[in-house]
Amino acid sequence: MAASNTAGTEPVIRIEGLRKSFGDHVVLKNIDFDVMPGEVVTIIGASGSGKSTLLRCINLLETPDSGHVWFHGQDLAAEHVDVNRLREKIGMVFQGFNLFNNLNVLQNCTLAPVTLKKMGKADAEAEAMRHLTEVGLAEFAKSPVTSLSGGQKQRVAIARALCMRPDLMLFDEPTSALDPEIVGEVLSVMRDLAREGMTMVVVTHEMEFAKNVSDKVVFMDRGVIAEQGDPQQIFTNPRMPRTREFLSRYL
Ligand code: ADP
Ligand code: MG
């Protein structure tokens, strides 16, 4: 979780004045926020409010129109930024798993370390087995991913991302495609990751997770951050009427 004293510590991510549009549709504007090392930031807000686009600007899947995104103090808009290098340090977990269905569980986890990081196969497999153990799936290492449940697939996706030793993990509605009874197994893995000190930005509709696990909650409404702050404050005493209105849908 968040370091108790972050004074003088550099944020993992700093966003200032971010603006993004598609054609003449402005999707994000005046976005400012920081993610400190070890912090868990959840982003909540209605569908279409710009949550996914914001995550995609952090790992350069989208290019902002203006404003800045710094990753460990490096301005991502700078010409010389090596996008591939950067993405290796940012793990991303999507709603739809995005696993390679033609590979088994272990191969899904070792592909990027071996091909992108030039890790030896044996080392990559040993590391993958450690992460598969963490997510409770060691015994499925040789299984085809197509034989797994949605919750298991999402845990493989998390293990696969961890195999790249990311500095930051981005989650875009990781449990939205799952049956309600298996959401918990994925949230539990994410909670463990948070406890171990992983820096995480999580877009979610799981308000209990946002309230209990995050250090900071960001509420987005129609392309702006309407309110951000301490989860207890946001959930028990939101300052903005639109935050209150949004949260009332989850009661
Ligand atoms: P959220 O994740 O909060 O549901 P998104 O970031 O996916 O919101 O989308 C915000 C808005 O941007 C929506 O109106 C969506 O239709 C639009 N949008 C997202 N991606 C694109 C794109 N590639 N081209 C055009 N419009 C897009
Ligand atoms: Mg989205």
Automatic annotation (TrEMBL):
Reactions catalysed, semicolon-separated, are: a polar amino acid(out) + ATP + H2O = a polar amino acid(in) + ADP + phosphate + H(+)
Entry keywords, A to Z = Amino-acid transport, ATP-binding, Cell membrane, Membrane, Nucleotide-binding, Transport
EC number assigned by the record: 7.4.2.1
Which CDD domains does this entry report, sorted A to Z?
ABC_HisP_GlnQ (cd03262)
GO molecular function of the protein, one example? ATPase-coupled polar amino acid-transporter activity
Q: How does it sit in the membrane?
A: Peripheral membrane protein
Q: Is Protein transport included in the keywords of this UniProt record?
A: no
> What's the name of the protein?
ABC-type polar-amino-acid transporter
In which organism is this protein found?
Parafannyhessea umbonata
